[in-house]
Amino acid sequence: MHRPTPRYARGYLLHASARKRHWLAVPVAAALAALFAFPAGAAPGGHATHPRLAAEKAAEQDATATPAGKDDGGDDDSGEESDEIAEGAAQYAEARTSPGVVAPGAFSAAWDQLNKLPSTGSSWQHLTGLPYDSDDPRYRDYDSNSSGGAGLVTGRAAALAADDGGYVYEGSAGGGVWRSSTGGGHWQPISDTLPTQATGALALDKGGRLWLGTGEATTNADAYQGSGVYVLSHPRSGTFTASDRVGGKELDSTTIHTLRFGGDRVWASTSEGVWSHSTSDLRGPWTLEFAPNPDYLPGGTLAHDPNAPYKNIANDVAIDPRDPGKVMLAIGWRSGDTYNGFYTKQHGTWTRVDSLGALPTDPDDVGNVTFARSADGSRYYAVNQSPEKLNAGDATILDGIYVSKSGSPLGPWTRIADADTLAAAGSALDPPGSQAWYNEFLQVDPTNPDHVYAGLEEVFETTDGGSSWSAVGAYWNFYFPCWSIDPAEQTGDCQPTTHPDQHAVAVGSYHGKSYVYVGDDGGVYKRPLNGHKDADGHATDWVSTNDGTIDTLQYYSVGVGKDPAGHGLAVNGGLQDNGQSQLRAGDKVMGSNFGGDGGDTLTDPANGCNIAQEYVYLAVNVTQNCAVNDGAWVEDPTKATSYDVAPPDNETGAARFTAPLTADTENGDVWVAGGQHVWVQTHGYAIRSGDEWTDAFDLGAGHTATAVAAQGGKVYAAWCGPCNNQGFTRGLAVGNEDGTGWHQVDLPSTGAQGAVPNRYLAGLTVDPSDSAHVYLAVNGFSRHWTEGPGAGFGHVFESHDGGTTWKDISANLPDVPADALLARPDGGLVLATDMGVVYRAPHHTGWERVGRMPAVAVLQLKPGPDGRIYAATHGRGLYAIDAGSLK
């Protein structure tokens, strides 16, 4: 039966994840370099959004129940989210790589420069170190996903490892590696001193050492590159340090998808081919085993080609358990390329495998591949994504799940599941597998070679070698017969489930009992390895380990205001795939009052329950009660407490995935939003319709806003278009909120004194005492690292004449992507970068590092009504620091 997805945001379709979006990884500073820009033939962009869950549920009960002015969704589950994720990924990468590609070493150099800066400020206070309940019953409003069943969540888990002594290791997408000694929960960070917090792979070897491959390899939007492979000899008690790195710099600025052991070697599948290293002697360089297109590797003749990041992608390595010398490589870019396929060594040369039984070998049919083998060596399993289906726009891009009953990676292979098989297994999606390039894992029960867990958007299980399957971790509970928006009306059959979008899996034991652990866009969940299921095949025993001790939440934005119910504050922020979090004064648990991907956020400083919440492509919702709702709107539409107020560019798709939204710093009732047009509305949080926006200025066909700032009626709007490295162009428009005085500013990138680099313009801020005094933050890396026309130098620029002329004020600033700026009333300037926060004191020219936090990207800064500065980090939650401590 077709089950429409819930997450609501203005009438397109999306599953629960429109949140991850990029494509490769940008090391917290290492700009994925080209891993990000989509070449010709890559996954197309789209702007799907989820149909509003409860609206459709209500419509099922009463065709007239849809609240006036609301879109009931109407879309089917067509799998468009995969396109949306891909487009978001591309856009995130564009900011860090355009106008060209970034050379290896940029990240490490920036980290060294940052560590040499003097320090200022008091310590950062971590705000979000408490449980985040995605099903908080306080927030059952129209735009919430609360009641879906995922329970306690945190940021995306990219890798897992577990042992038989109760120790579990989680590698987060952007928040480092964490350890639990209690079988999950009571987590502690163990990699905070490393120069990157992006994880691609974790693996325990036979000696109990923990191997860490840095650089997230999900090829999605907010992934970051890494700094190589590290080994922790005593993972139960130790922490990673820079001295634990294996080999040299060969794997710096790559992403690592898997680490596999065979004989006395470890094999790494990376974004730059397959590499191996001795497991006994950790010195010496890594050996490049195979790269299908070596000319595109760093130092090669085609290294600066825009398509270089897509030419040597390795997904996994399968090693014959009986003969470690027999190895098969899974190579290929998810959207397809002539080099895609399986390779093995013949007569000393890596050669494409032409026949593997039912497992495809044609380049058009081999995409993202994940292997798993049984402990006894009798089985090899594989899951394969289809480039052909992706490029055809099929609803599912899953090719299938396969088994080699010979135990050899060379097969012969037999298909044991496809999308139809899994759809009939209790899936909440129709069909599953729309994001198989992003979601894939396989795990074989160490004691039973026929017992397998497979992860796509959901978690599937077979206990008979693939003859039958069960969706033990459904996408969510929406639309199952047990579901009700009112928890009191749910039947006992509606069990907790996992968060959508699976990435990692491990099996371990605690107190003698075996558990399977799965990592997804909501963190880490566990259940007994041989757990219980209901009549529909759904597990009844999932437990979230996201107990608040692990905070890897990936914020894009933050908003702060006085809590109207007390003397404290209400703090909220938009998150990757986890909607918007709401932390109110006195809360012991954060709630989620908005679903999907949270983008920009506006919060009334005087009343923290007046909130504008942005979803993708400039979809904006507003609430004036923190979106507190018990779900009564299902029966009485007038009881909805949030409203769709998206500017028209949302309807046409003429906005970036995460589009800029701001309020005039002198009048909080005036908002400015940027798509192709600069939109203005003057009703503040009382706005109730998208029709209330006025079109102040058209930035031009093909141009979309990247940053906006407004003060005292004056507006600055930065834009790009094209935004990728294929003819990248950026600009700045200046005008008034009433639509008068608009003009495009001449921004020369070369030649003129104070030229602004031809790179992504990521942030704008205005001097609180002078609206003609404006600062500009420029993303990406300088020309020293970036190959592209006009890449230039510098990251922060200043204008005293409304943007007519500019001066580079970067001075000693590290060469690191700059994301956002905050101008303080005393003349100080605070800058958020991909590696933390820096500060320039009033009447000074040099920059200082603000406090200490792990090497994590900070994407937004906001002043609070309490005199503190709030930082939204993309991987370690929300932080605040006393603004008065910055000297």
Task: Give a brief description.
This protein has 887 residues and is mainly beta. 6% of the residues lie in helices and 32% in strands. It is built from six helices and 59 strands.
Description:
- Strand 29 (513-520) and strand 30 form a beta hairpin.
- By secondary structure, the chain is mostly beta strands.
- The termini are far apart.
List the helices and strands and how they pair.
Blueprint lengths: L52 H9 L19 H17 L3 E2 L3 H10 L3 E2 L4 E2 L5 E2 L23 E6 L5 E5 L4 E4 L7 E2 L9 E6 L5 E5 L14 E4 L23 E7 L2 E6 L2 E6 L8 E4 L23 E6 L7 E5 L9 E6 L2 E4 L16 E5 L6 E6 L1 H6 L5 E7 L8 E5 L1 H5 L17 E4 L7 E4 L3 E4 L7 E4 L28 E9 L2 E8 L2 E6 L14 E2 L14 E4 L6 E6 L5 E4 L6 E5 L6 E4 L2 E8 L5 E4 L18 E3 L3 H5 L8 E4 L2 E8 L2 E5 L12 E5 L5 E8 L2 E7 L9 E7 L6 E3 L15 E6 L7 E5 L7 E2 L8 E4 L7 E2 L9 E6 L5 E5 L2 E5 L7 E3 L7 E6 L4 E6 L4 E5 L5
Parallel strand pairs: 2-56, 4-35
Antiparallel strand pairs: 1-50, 3-59, 5-6, 6-7, 7-8, 9-10, 10-11, 12-13, 13-14, 14-15, 16-17, 17-18, 18-19, 20-21, 21-22, 22-23, 24-25, 25-26, 26-27, 28-29, 29-30, 30-31, 32-33, 33-34, 34-35, 36-37, 37-38, 38-39, 40-41, 41-42, 42-43, 44-45, 45-46, 46-47, 48-49, 49-51, 51-52, 53-54, 54-55, 55-56, ...
